[in-house]
Amino acid sequence: MAKPTLTISSKNYSSWSLRGWLLAKFAGLDFDEVVVGPDDASARAEILLLSSSILVPCLRHDGATIWDTLAIGEYLNETFPEAGLLPADRIERAHCRSISGEIHSGFTTLRASLPVNLKGHFPGFKVWTRAQADIDRIWAIWHDCLDRSGGPFLFGPRGMADAMYAPVVTRFVTYDVKLEPRLKAYADLVMAMPEMQEWIEAAKAEPEEIEELEVEY
């Protein structure tokens, strides 16, 4: 059987690549990376939120090809149930799917005004009112999940929801968004995961820059 592959784009800029990659890592899947450079037109369009590219992330495993991030998470949960990507409890599993779906399809103002940029740091960044509304909703989701689970991750053990919200955590770091202590503890936990540290180090080593995603004052 051929070794599984995960097609991704820029580690510095692509939030969807990060989500798919974390899901595969959390599942314990041994895979090879296939990297599509940001100079590729389709990959660039995905990074700039101009299209719903089917190029990245794309998991190929045991004859299956899966290119939607939520579908990748569901497939990995089904294939590697012992990894616990989704909660065992039916009600909590439904809750996890709901908040994962919300980040998958929503928060468009946050995405556009605070793009993922792991090499960047912009202290004092001015957050638009509409983007703040997205941030407030994310904070409410996190509080609710931590209340229900008791932490330390959104549903207790780390899982699909944490992978889905990890790019949001990086946005808060990049744009110096202040968090209250409880949420900062969760964000710090996500950033400290060995998988996140591995991804960030690789992102910092990338030579490419996308000018449209570099904030100017």
Summarize the structure.
The chain is an alpha+beta fold and 217 residues long.
Structure description:
By secondary structure, this protein is of the alpha+beta class. It folds into 2 domains: 79 residues, 3-Layer(aba) Sandwich (Glutaredoxin); 111 residues, Glutathione S-transferase Yfyf (Class Pi), Chain A, domain 2, CATH 1.20.1050. The protein has 9 helices and 4 strands; from the N terminus they run βαβαββααααααα. α1 packs across α7. The radius of gyration is 17 Å and the shape is globular. The protein starts with a strand and ends in a 13-residue tail after the last helix. 38% of the residues are buried. The model has no long low-confidence stretch (mean pLDDT 90).
Major sheet size, sense and barrel closure: 4 strands, mixed
Strand order, largest beta sheet: 2-1-3-4
The first-level CATH class name of the largest domain: Mainly Alpha
CATH architecture of the largest domain: Up-down Bundle
The count of DSSP E runs of length 2 or more, i.e. the number of strands, is 4
Net shape: globular
Protein name: Putative maleylacetoacetate isomerase
GO molecular function, one term: glutathione transferase activity
Pfam families: GST_C_2 (PF13410), GST_N_2 (PF13409)
Keywords: Isomerase
Q: What's the SSE blueprint?
A:
Elements: E1 5-8, H1 15-26, E2 32-35, H2 41-47, E3 58-61, E4 64-66, H3 69-79, H4 90-105, H5 108-113, H6 129-149, H7 160-174, H8 181-192, H9 194-204
Parallel strand pairs: 1-2
Antiparallel strand pairs: 1-3, 3-4
Helix pairs in contact: 1-3, 1-7, 4-7, 7-8
